[in-house]
Write a structure and sequence with these properties.
By secondary structure, this protein is of the alpha/beta class. It is about 35% helix and about 15% strand. It contains 30 helices and 30 strands. GO terms for molecular function: ADP binding; ATP binding.
């Protein structure tokens, strides 16, 4: 390059060549400076990137009352079980699910484990997979500007690659529906875990949770501890009356932590008894007026209501607030009401099945609680929320007037309320008479049940043209229906069960729209007008279980042929019926339609010397309850055991039978047919003079096919009551597992010296055995281990 220069090497002969060379030199100089810089080794390594903590601590209450036991249970699943898998925490809104999940998260901070990542994600109602991926990406170090621009599928691949090599716990808070973990990129956990919270137990199924834990409301003791903590000791101790008043306020919260916290904080500076008494009054009269409840508690709970699938199910839910606080609601009564209110679509599966599905939906949404198999209950705060919706949010639409359980001695005098209301509940009060004639042009629903009603003025119902549902059950003092009831031409449900009404007026024939008639345990009812039942051509539900059984022979001859009147009811879906003659029973058996819809059967005072064919009963596919009373002339229960063995292999034989009662049937010697009923929950046998065995071993001597059937009967039996059986020597000839037995009562059965129990019976659970002290002392046991196992289970009837 020097040779190309002129003027002593200072100028180029070719300007273009010189320019190129200059640029080349400049670049080389920059490279030299860079290399010199790299040669300075003041730092021998780059600083390490900031480490990522396994879990990020989240804010929570300093003390958490009532959750410690469940926290330990879930923690053991996570750190001690080899494959925790997917775990669901479910429960109603405000019960503490997020608090529990937060405690789990923070336990990872305080306790070293072999988990590499603990990832907290808030999901909520508006499910967005991209946001879940974003939160996970930030935690595991994937989140960059370039990563943000990737597609959902590409991000899922990156997350999957990272988490597949690590042990992680993914904590998902507030799921309202199934989250597809594969779409997010979360590998199905083997050694890892996914823990989520939800209000809906169905979500646990959708997420394929290996374990699920119900987060329940607090016990009275824990609720008081939490409430006292929020109010503060200074306020609690400020007046000698306040501790007791404060406990009353705490109980109004029904153990719901969110309500306890909100109300506790609101009462923190209320230091006079008057303020506390006023708070109790407000909570009982109109809880939504209490500071913070509507905004902070009811609004939160309302999300579950809003999330219900459709308006019909929402209406079914709101309907439950017509019942009193802390009231056990019979599922079948509830479904009857829903059907007649028009909430249930009529389809090929029947309204009863549709109603059962809705009950299950509400239970799984934690808006109702199951009390027993046949009852549900509304949590007090959930009920208050429902009343808040009906009386404030949707006041004009719903028109609810609820005075249930208010201690009223007479109907409210709010004339405008009667005129504008659509649903009125006066149930469970102390109302003895209804002397006035109200004007109720819009009233659809009237609950008068569970009162000491004696008289209802004749014109009481004359201004209720739209009334659809009328419940007057559990008025045990009520002996006569008012003549004006015939004016209720729109009525679809009439319930006078558990009353002392002696006869139905002829005017009831005007109620041609009736779909449900409930006369269960109206045991004084003896007068039923001829052709009355057949006149209800739209009837879907007829309940006449134990109707007239208290009349002791005083019975209208027209009622004897009741079965003939039922034959024309083509829409009938549910039948509960009482027969007092063998002829009526035979007519009933001849109808496949009646047999197919019978759920409860009461046979009372049969006066002919006949035998009842068990095979006829076994074919009643829906039969749930069977009752024999005062059938002294029944020779016995006729059984062809070989035929029954064949029938028992079919899925319909006694499959629905859960409750059997036999009362005052002197000629019966045993009830061996019960071994063919695999789902029995309750057996009651009383005052049967000739009864020697409940199940007779001798009946099977010549039938080897019976071996498999009788090997372990009563697998679902919960209650067994035996009374006044002087000749009874045996319940069963050998010990039984009885895995679900809860209670066994034996009274005046002096010949019964041994129970069918051994040390393994009842799964080692503590059951209750009631009886006389003398009988208990004489009892013989299988062995000493059996006696020791049940020694503490006895309760003397002498003490009751």
């Amino acid at each position: 390059e020097i040779d190309k220069l002129c003027l002593g090497g200072y100028c180029s002969r070719n300007c273009k060549s010189s320019y190129k060379f200059g640029r080349k030199v400049a670049k080389m100089l920059r490279d030299v400076r860079a290399l010199k810089g790299d040669g300075v080794f003041e730092e021998v390594a780059a600083p390490a990137p900031e480490s990522i903590s396994v879990a990020d601590e989240r804010p929570t209450e300093p003390t958490v009352v009532g959750l410690q036991s469940q926290l330990e249970q879930v923690w053991r699943c996570l750190v001690q079980e080899p494959a925790a898998g997917i775990i669901g925490l479910y429960g109603m809104g405000g019960v503490g699910k997020t608090t529990l999940l937060t405690q789990i998260n923070n336990k990872f901070v305080d306790n070293p484990t072999d988990f590499d990542y603990v990832i907290w994600v808030v999901v909520s109602k508006d499910l967005q997979l991209e946001k879940i991926q974003e939160t996970i990406g930030k935690k595991i170090g994937l989140y960059t500007d370039s990563w943000k621009s990737k597609s959902l599928e590409e991000k899922a691949q990156d997350i999957f690659k990272t988490l597949s090599k690590k042990k992680f716990a993914l904590l998902l808070d507030d799921l309202w529906e199934r989250v597809d973990l594969k779409k997010i990129g979360v590998p199905l956990p083997k050694n890892s875990a996914v823990v989520f919270t939800t209000r809906f137990v169905d979500v646990c199924g959708g997420m394929e949770a290996r374990r699920k834990f119900k987060v329940a409301c607090l016990s009275d003791e824990d609720a008081w501890e939490l409430f006292r903590e929020k109010v503060g000791e200074e306020t609690i101790e400020s007046h000698h009356s306040i501790p007791q008043l404060a406990q009353t306020v705490a109980k109004e919260c029904g153990g719901l932590p969110l309500a306890l916290i909100i109300i506790g904080r609101a009462m923190a500076y209320k230091k006079t008894p008057e303020e506390w008494r006023y708070a109790i009054e407000v909570l009982r009269r109109s809880a939504s007026e209490f500071a913070g409840l509507g905004k902070e508690v009811y609004s939160l709970l309302k999300f579950s209501y809003d999330c219900l699938p459709n308006d019909a199910i929402r209406s079914c839910f709101l309907y439950c607030c017509l019942y009193p606080e802390d009231y056990s609601i019979d599922k079948r009564d509830l479904i009857d009401c829903w059907m007649c209110e028009g909430f249930l679509e009529e389809d090929k599966f029947g309204t009863q099945n549709r109603g059962s599905h809705i009950v299950t939906t509400l239970v799984r949404a934690c808006l109702l609680e199951e009390v027993e198999d046949d009852q549900v209950k509304m949590h007090d705060v959930v009920r208050d929320m429902a009343l808040w919706i009906t009386c404030e949010i949707e006041k004009e639409k719903e028109g609810f007037l609820v005075y249930a359980g208010s201690g009223l001695t007479e109907a409210p005098a709010d004339v405008r309320g009667w005129e504008m209301g659509r649903r009125l509940s006066l149930m469970k009060n102390s109302i003895g008479n209804l002397p006035t004639v109200p004007t109720c042009p819009h009233l659809l629903t009237l609950f008068l049940n569970d009162n000491p009603l004696r008289t209802i003025t004749g014109g009481f119902f004359q201004s209720m043209p739209c009334l659809t549902v009328l419940k007057m059950s559990d008025n045990i003092m009520l002996r006569q229906l008012p003549t004006g009831i015939s004016k209720l031409v729109s009525l679809q449900l009439l319930d006078i069960s558990y009353t002392s009404v002696t006869g139905l007026p002829e005017g009831l024939k005007a109620l041609v729209n009736l779909k449900c008639l409930n006369l269960d345990w109206a045991d004084e009812l003896v007068e039923v007008p001829q052709q009355l039942l057949s006149n209800f051509s739209r009837l879907r539900v007829l309940r006449m279980f134990a109707t007239g059984v208290g009349s002791y022979g005083r019975f209208s001859s027209r009622y004897v042929n009741v079965a003939e009147e039922l034959l024309g009811l083509k829409y009938l879906e549910v039948l509960e019926i009482t027969f007092r003659s063998f002829e009526a029973y035979q007519t009933f058996l001849s109808s496949q339609k009646l047999r197919s819809c019978t759920q409860a059967l009461f046979l009372h005072e049969f006066c002919r010397e006949e035998s009842i064919g068990v095979a006829d009963l076994a074919d009643l596919e829906q039969l749930n309850t069977l009752y024999f009373r005062s059938c002294d002339w029944i020779k016995g229960l006729k059984i062809d055991y070989k035929d029954m063995v064949q029938k028992s292999r079919q899925p319909c034989v006694f499959r629905s039978l859960e409750e059997v009662t036999v009362d005052n049937c002197g000629n019966l010697k045993h009830l061996t047919f019960l071994v063919f009923a695999p789902n029995l929950k309750s057996i009651s046998v009383r005052d049967c003079d000739d009864m020697e065995e409940i199940i007779s071993a001798g009946e099977f001597d010549d039938i080897p096919e019976m071996t498999g059937i009788i090997s372990s009967p009563f697998a679902k039996l919960q209650h067994l009551q035996l009374g006044g059986l002087g000749r009874l020597k045996s319940i069963y000839w050998k010990p039984l597992p009885l895995p679900r037995l809860k209670e066994l009562t034996v009274v005046d059965c002096d010949s019964l010296e041994k129970l069918p129990l051994d040390s393994n019976s009842a799964n080692g659970r503590r059951i209750l055995i009631r009886g006389d002290e003398d009988w208990w002392r004489r009892l013989q046991w299988e062995d000493e281990a059996t006696q020791n196992a049940f020694r503490l289970c006895f309760q003397s009837l002498d003490e009751l």
